[in-house]
Design a protein that fits this description.
Blueprint (H helix, E strand, L loop, with lengths): L6 E5 L3 H13 L3 E5 L2 H11 L3 E5 L7 H9 L9 E5 L4 H10 L3 E4 L5 H12 L2
Parallel strand pairs: 1-2, 1-3, 3-4, 4-5
Helix pairs in contact: 1-5, 2-3
């Protein structure tokens, strides 16, 4: 368990996955804030100023790359670690996400939940 509670924002339109990630992170002692699309993700990021953001790319209203650009365009959002998650194993999308400011890019189908949690912990130094 982590000694100082860190907040993670999980932005994903897939309810089951969003809830599974949230449950796994909460079990490890993180405070989890959830959003169902890019618009809500940007609003929640602005409200909560999370320590890390897990961000899906393919979402309704505003995709993850547009949301990431909006977050990175703010003073408070410049330094927040962002791990982008997607089902796309596409080098063009990977490059676009990294260019927009993603710290890491994960393909959902290639990563286990436990590994995702370890990546979050590693990024936050806990």
């Amino acid at each position: 368990m982590i000694s100082e509670k860190k907040t993670v924002l999980v932005v994903d339109d897939e309810t089951d996955l969003r809830e599974a990630i949230a449950t796994a992170l909460e079990y490890e002692g993180f405070v989890v804030v959830k959003a169902v699309d890019g618009d809500e993700g940007v609003k929640q990021a602005e409200l909560t100023k999370p320590d890390l953001i897990l961000l899906d790319i393919l979402m309704p209203k505003r995709d993850g790359i547009a949301a990431l650009k909006d977050i990175r365009g703010t003073e408070w959002g410049k330094e927040i670690p962002v791990i982008v998650m997607t089902v796309l194993d596409d080098m063009g999308k990977i490059a676009e996400a990294i260019e927009a400011g993603a710290d890491e890019y994960l393909v959902k189908t290639n990563i286990a939940l436990g590994v995702l949690v370890e990546k979050v912990k590693s990024r936050l130094g806990v």
